[in-house]
Amino acid sequence: MMEEIKMLENEVLWTKDGFAISTDKNFLNIDVIHDFLSKDSYWVKGITKELVKASIENSILCYGVYEGNPANGSAKQVGFARVVSDLVRFAYLCDVFILPEYRGQGLSKWLMGTITEHPKLKGTGFMLATKDAHGLYAQYGFKPLDQIEKRMARPLDWEAVYEGYNIHR
Questions:
Q1: 104 φψ region: left (φ > 0), alpha (ψ -120 to 50), beta (else)
Q2: Which domains occur in the chain, in start order?
Q3: Model's pTM, two decimal places?
Q4: Mean pLDDT, the chain, as a whole number?
Protein backbone atom coordinates (compact mmCIF):
# COMPACT_ATOMS: atom_id res chain seq x y z
CA MET A 1 0.00 0.00 0.00
CA MET A 2 1.42 3.37 -1.03
CA GLU A 3 0.83 6.43 1.07
CA GLU A 4 1.58 10.04 0.12
CA ILE A 5 2.37 12.43 2.94
CA LYS A 6 2.52 16.17 2.21
CA MET A 7 5.53 17.82 3.75
CA LEU A 8 6.68 21.35 3.05
CA GLU A 9 5.14 23.11 0.06
CA ASN A 10 7.44 21.51 -2.53
CA GLU A 11 8.54 18.35 -0.73
CA VAL A 12 6.66 15.10 -0.74
CA LEU A 13 7.27 11.72 0.88
CA TRP A 14 5.98 8.46 -0.58
CA THR A 15 6.12 5.25 1.43
CA LYS A 16 5.73 1.63 0.36
CA ASP A 17 6.69 -1.72 1.90
CA GLY A 18 9.18 -0.29 4.41
CA PHE A 19 10.80 2.06 1.90
CA ALA A 20 10.34 5.76 1.21
CA ILE A 21 11.03 8.22 -1.59
CA SER A 22 11.37 11.89 -0.72
CA THR A 23 12.10 15.11 -2.60
CA ASP A 24 13.29 16.80 0.60
CA LYS A 25 16.97 17.61 0.02
CA ASN A 26 17.50 17.86 3.79
CA PHE A 27 17.11 14.07 4.06
CA LEU A 28 19.80 13.32 1.45
CA ASN A 29 22.95 11.61 2.69
CA ILE A 30 25.66 13.35 0.67
CA ASP A 31 28.25 10.77 1.78
CA VAL A 32 26.20 7.88 0.31
CA ILE A 33 25.56 9.79 -2.92
CA HIS A 34 29.18 10.89 -3.29
CA ASP A 35 30.51 7.43 -2.48
CA PHE A 36 28.37 5.76 -5.15
CA LEU A 37 28.93 8.40 -7.82
CA SER A 38 32.68 8.78 -7.28
CA LYS A 39 33.48 5.07 -6.89
CA ASP A 40 30.77 2.97 -8.54
CA SER A 41 29.20 5.01 -11.34
CA TYR A 42 30.58 4.89 -14.86
CA TRP A 43 29.49 8.46 -15.64
CA VAL A 44 31.23 10.61 -12.95
CA LYS A 45 33.81 8.34 -11.37
CA GLY A 46 36.17 10.45 -9.26
CA ILE A 47 33.81 13.45 -8.84
CA THR A 48 34.52 15.51 -5.72
CA LYS A 49 32.08 15.84 -2.85
CA GLU A 50 31.98 19.63 -3.45
CA LEU A 51 30.70 19.12 -6.98
CA VAL A 52 28.15 16.51 -5.85
CA LYS A 53 26.83 19.04 -3.31
CA ALA A 54 26.71 21.79 -5.96
CA SER A 55 24.88 19.56 -8.43
CA ILE A 56 22.24 18.76 -5.81
CA GLU A 57 21.85 22.38 -4.74
CA ASN A 58 21.48 23.50 -8.38
CA SER A 59 18.96 20.81 -9.37
CA ILE A 60 15.24 21.58 -9.28
CA LEU A 61 14.28 18.18 -7.82
CA CYS A 62 16.28 15.46 -6.11
CA TYR A 63 14.79 12.13 -5.10
CA GLY A 64 16.20 10.10 -2.25
CA VAL A 65 15.19 6.45 -1.85
CA TYR A 66 15.34 5.19 1.73
CA GLU A 67 14.95 2.01 3.68
CA GLY A 68 12.74 3.27 6.49
CA ASN A 69 11.18 6.70 6.81
CA PRO A 70 13.54 9.70 6.81
CA ALA A 71 10.81 11.90 8.30
CA ASN A 72 11.08 9.77 11.45
CA GLY A 73 14.87 10.03 11.45
CA SER A 74 15.29 6.27 11.04
CA ALA A 75 16.21 5.69 7.43
CA LYS A 76 19.14 4.50 5.34
CA GLN A 77 19.56 6.07 1.91
CA VAL A 78 19.64 3.33 -0.74
CA GLY A 79 19.03 5.27 -3.96
CA PHE A 80 19.01 8.65 -5.63
CA ALA A 81 18.06 10.57 -8.77
CA ARG A 82 18.11 14.22 -9.70
CA VAL A 83 16.24 16.30 -12.26
CA VAL A 84 17.45 19.46 -13.96
CA SER A 85 14.44 21.23 -15.44
CA ASP A 86 12.43 24.37 -16.17
CA LEU A 87 9.33 22.31 -15.20
CA VAL A 88 7.62 23.29 -18.46
CA ARG A 89 9.41 22.06 -21.61
CA PHE A 90 12.69 20.51 -20.59
CA ALA A 91 13.93 18.01 -18.02
CA TYR A 92 17.16 16.06 -17.77
CA LEU A 93 17.29 13.00 -15.53
CA CYS A 94 20.68 12.09 -14.12
CA ASP A 95 22.66 10.37 -11.38
CA VAL A 96 20.04 7.64 -11.02
CA PHE A 97 21.07 4.70 -8.86
CA ILE A 98 19.92 2.09 -6.39
CA LEU A 99 22.67 0.58 -4.24
CA PRO A 100 23.57 -2.91 -5.52
CA GLU A 101 22.35 -4.74 -2.40
CA TYR A 102 18.87 -3.19 -2.83
CA ARG A 103 18.41 -3.93 -6.53
CA GLY A 104 15.83 -6.45 -7.69
CA GLN A 105 13.13 -5.19 -5.29
CA GLY A 106 11.33 -2.89 -7.72
CA LEU A 107 12.84 0.29 -6.26
CA SER A 108 14.10 1.57 -9.64
CA LYS A 109 10.66 1.15 -11.16
CA TRP A 110 9.00 2.82 -8.21
CA LEU A 111 11.51 5.70 -8.40
CA MET A 112 10.99 6.15 -12.14
CA GLY A 113 7.21 6.06 -11.78
CA THR A 114 7.37 8.63 -9.01
CA ILE A 115 9.59 10.96 -11.07
CA THR A 116 7.68 10.68 -14.34
CA GLU A 117 4.29 11.14 -12.63
CA HIS A 118 5.32 14.33 -10.80
CA PRO A 119 2.60 16.88 -11.74
CA LYS A 120 5.09 19.40 -13.12
CA LEU A 121 7.21 16.81 -14.95
CA LYS A 122 4.47 14.54 -16.31
CA GLY A 123 4.19 16.26 -19.71
CA THR A 124 7.70 17.68 -19.88
CA GLY A 125 10.15 16.51 -22.54
CA PHE A 126 12.71 14.39 -20.70
CA MET A 127 16.26 13.48 -21.70
CA LEU A 128 18.79 11.16 -20.13
CA ALA A 129 21.89 9.21 -20.99
CA THR A 130 22.39 5.54 -20.14
CA LYS A 131 24.83 2.80 -21.00
CA ASP A 132 22.80 -0.16 -19.76
CA ALA A 133 19.28 0.69 -18.53
CA HIS A 134 17.41 1.28 -21.80
CA GLY A 135 14.78 -1.33 -20.92
CA LEU A 136 13.95 0.32 -17.60
CA TYR A 137 13.61 3.80 -19.08
CA ALA A 138 11.58 2.60 -22.08
CA GLN A 139 8.86 1.50 -19.64
CA TYR A 140 8.42 5.18 -18.72
CA GLY A 141 8.19 6.61 -22.23
CA PHE A 142 11.87 7.19 -23.01
CA LYS A 143 13.01 6.29 -26.52
CA PRO A 144 16.03 6.94 -28.76
CA LEU A 145 16.28 10.51 -30.00
CA ASP A 146 14.46 11.43 -33.20
CA GLN A 147 16.20 13.56 -35.79
CA ILE A 148 19.57 13.20 -34.11
CA GLU A 149 21.11 15.25 -36.92
CA LYS A 150 19.23 18.32 -35.59
CA ARG A 151 20.56 17.95 -32.05
CA MET A 152 23.83 19.23 -30.73
CA ALA A 153 25.71 19.02 -27.46
CA ARG A 154 28.71 20.74 -25.97
CA PRO A 155 31.14 18.30 -24.34
CA LEU A 156 31.73 18.43 -20.61
CA ASP A 157 34.99 20.20 -19.70
CA TRP A 158 35.95 19.01 -16.21
CA GLU A 159 38.90 21.39 -16.02
CA ALA A 160 36.62 24.40 -16.55
CA VAL A 161 34.06 23.03 -14.06
CA TYR A 162 36.69 22.64 -11.33
CA GLU A 163 38.06 26.09 -12.13
CA GLY A 164 34.57 27.60 -11.93
CA TYR A 165 34.11 26.16 -8.45
CA ASN A 166 37.68 27.09 -7.46
CA ILE A 167 38.53 23.46 -6.74
CA HIS A 168 42.15 22.46 -7.21
CA ARG A 169 42.87 18.84 -8.00
A1: left
A2: 3-164 (3.40.630.30)
A3: 0.90
A4: 92
